[in-house]
Automatic annotation (TrEMBL), chains A, B:
This is Quercetin 2,3-dioxygenase. Pfam families: Cupin_2. Residues 60-120 form the Cupin type-2 domain. It comes from the Bacteria. PANTHER family: PUTATIVE (AFU_ORTHOLOGUE AFUA_8G07350)-RELATED. SUPFAM superfamilies: RmlC-like cupins.
Length: 185, 185
């Protein structure tokens, strides 16, 4: 038996609307969203944790570097579970680093550190936790992109309408940095 | 080049003492601790996240169920990355559930829900996040057990001295429940 719940985010979610209830979610069956070529799956959000943390995965094809961005109030974990992901990060003094992460490797990006990543193998997967004293931001992906019912990576990239870039990132503590250069290579 | 830092927890840690610095940790090289037959590896703690969340792994042999316990102020994630782990949980109304979790599966235990688990395959691994409004509790394992330098599972189980059970769990929001019965089987 699979139990599904109606929540503020989905008509049928594996995450209970009642945050006092324990739950299990099988691989891939969290709240899914598509953004560009990536599949984001949320397993727990701010409602479950009194806004202290969240837990999600990002899966995607081998591809281009994503746009550099920064969070003013959000610390972020990158833990690789499939494939290979190159993480680029710049500290608050402007010192840049990059590193290729493979399964079991970990990266930590404190708030106010510019960062980006590039998936370097097909169907790489990253476990993410992204939170800070201001809350959690797991619904960014489906708000900029779109909620998804199907399992698996998007068949076609989901390109946000241009007007969304003006309002959605700010709402979720994301600031994209146009023309940011990574000088690590 | 591997950079190591002196922190309040280790003379040589891959976690920077300065929480504003981004960092990478390769698989297995976080702050390690042994407790009973398990290896616990901390990749990020409360110092990194303004006390909002942590990130650690627990690896262990196929074995017995760990003692049932509960956290008054801590929500906990179980995300399986190797092997198979059976999670037992009881909600605040006394309803019990158990489920065998395999890689990619997820379990969420809200605060005040009694829980336990049993690793059902050799060298299973769980990714954990355990935090709540009162903070994070990633140093429980090394305080009840012992910090470890070596990589890999403990060669001999680390059994805490009896007096530690009287003081350490409470300090980290852990309450063991002697004689708790799982009626799910």
């Amino acid at each position: 038996m699979t139990i599904e719940y109606a929540t503020r985010y989905r008509t049928a979610s594996r995450i209970p609307a009642d945050p006092t209830k324990p739950y299990f979610i099988e691989k891939g069956e969290g709240d899914r969203a598509h953004l560009f070529g990536d599949l984001i799956t949320v397993y727990a959000g701010g409602e479950q944790t009194e806004n202290t943390f969240n837990f999600f995965t990002v899966e995607g094809p081998k591809g281009d570097i994503i746009p550099a961005h920064v969070h003013a109030d959000t610390h972020e974990v990158f833990y690789i579970t499939q494939g290979a992901v190159r993480l680029f990060v710049e500290d608050t003094e402007g010192v840049q680093q990059e590193k290729l992460l493979t399964p079991g490797d970990f990266g930590f990006v404190p708030k106010n550190c510019k960062h980006a990543y590039r998936m370097e193998r097909e169907h790489s997967q990253v476990v993410g936790v992204a939170a800070g004293p201001g809350g959690t931001f797991e619904r960014f992906f489906e708000t900029l992109g779109a909620p998804a019912d199907a399992l698996g990576l998007p068949r076609e990239p989901v390109i946000p309408e241009p007007h969304k870039f003006g309002s959605v990132p700010e709402q979720f503590d994301v600031r994209f940095l146009r023309d940011h250069e990574w000088r690590t290579r």
